[in-house]
Design brief:
Helices cover 28% and strands 22% of the residues. It is α/β, with parallel strands linked by helices and 206 residues long. The chain has a single domain (3-196), classed as DHBP synthase (Alpha-Beta Complex), CATH 3.90.870. The protein has a 10-stranded mixed β-sheet with strand order 1-8-2-3-7-4-6-5-9-10, sandwiched between helices. Strand 2 (30-34) and strand 3 (37-42) form a beta hairpin. The termini are far apart. It comes from Brevibacterium sandarakinum. Residues 14-200 form the YrdC-like domain. GO terms for molecular function: double-stranded RNA binding. This is tRNA threonylcarbamoyl adenosine modification protein, Sua5/YciO/YrdC/YwlC family.
C-alpha cells in the first residue's frame, strides 16, 4: 500500500519533499496534486515507471506524456520552442496549460509520441508540485490521474489511495488541487491547435 505524505500546501516541508523526491530517484511512482487535479509521476529515465503509468491508465502509443517543469528555462531544454511561439507560450506559464511540442534529444524516446516525436510540457502553479520538481533538478514525467472509464480525474488523496493505493508507492496530500485538467495546445503543426479544452482560457486560439 502506498505511503501517504501530508505536505503543507503553502510552505512544503523540505524533509517531506525530499522523501517524495527520493522515491522518484529510487524508481518509484507517485501520485501528486497539481493546479489541475492529481497526476502520476516518475523519474525521466524510469522505464518501469512509464510502464506502470501506461498500465494504470490503459494508455496507447498515441498518448502524450507530460514533462512537469520548474520554469521556462528548464522547459526549453526538453522541447523545441519556435521563435513564433516563444512569446505566446511564455505568457501562459506558469498556468493550467500543457503544450505539445517536438522533443529534444534530452527526452527519452519511449516517452515521445510514437510518430510525431513530440511530448507534452507544462509549468504548474501548484507550490508543492514546483517544490518537488525543484528537488529533483529535472522534470517529472507525468500523466493526469484519469482512470480508465472515468469521466473526471481524481482530486482527493483518499480517493487516490482507495483506488490505486496498491499501484503507486507514494500519495501526496497537500491542500486542495485543481479539479479540471489542463487545456492542451498542440504546437507541432503550422498553427497552434487546441487539443483539449480544460482549465486554461483557449480563446486566443479559436
Amino acid at each position: 500500500m502506498a505511503t501517504l505524505l501530508n505536505i503543507h500546501p503553502e510552505n512544503p516541508q523540505n524533509r517531506m519533499i525530499e522523501k517524495a523526491a527520493q522515491t522518484l530517484r529510487d524508481g518509484g511512482l507517485i501520485a501528486y496534486p497539481t493546479d489541475s487535479c492529481y497526476a502520476l509521476g516518475c523519474a525521466l529515465d524510469n522505464k518501469a515507471g512509464i510502464e506502470r503509468i501506461t498500465r494504470i491508465r490503459q494508455l496507447d502509443s498515441k498518448h502524450h506524456f507530460t514533462l512537469m517543469c520548474r520554469d521556462f528555462a528548464q522547459l526549453g531544454q526538453f522541447v523545441i520552442v519556435d521563435n513564433s511561439d516563444f512569446r505566446v507560450i511564455k505568457s501562459m506559464t506558469p498556468g493550467p496549460y500543457t503544450f505539445i511540442m517536438k522533443a529534444t534529444k534530452e527526452v527519452p524516446r519511449r516517452m515521445m509520441h510514437a510518430k510525431k516525436h513530440s511530448v507534452g510540457a507544462r509549468i504548474p502553479q501548484n507550490v508543492t508540485a514546483l517544490a518537488l520538481v525543484e528537488a529533483m533538478g529535472e522534470p517529472i514525467l507525468s500523466s493526469t490521474l484519469l482512470l480508465p472509464g472515468a469521466e473526471d480525474p481524481l482530486t482527493q488523496a483518499d480517493d487516490v489511495v482507495d483506488q490505486i493505493g496498491h499501484d503507486v508507492d507514494v500519495v501526496i496530500e497537500s491542500g486542495v488541487p485543481g479539479t479540471v485538467p489542463t487545456s492542451v495546445i498542440d504546437f507541432t503543426g503550422r498553427e497552434p491547435e487546441v487539443a483539449r479544452v480544460g482549465a486554461g482560457d483557449v480563446s486566443r486560439f479559436e
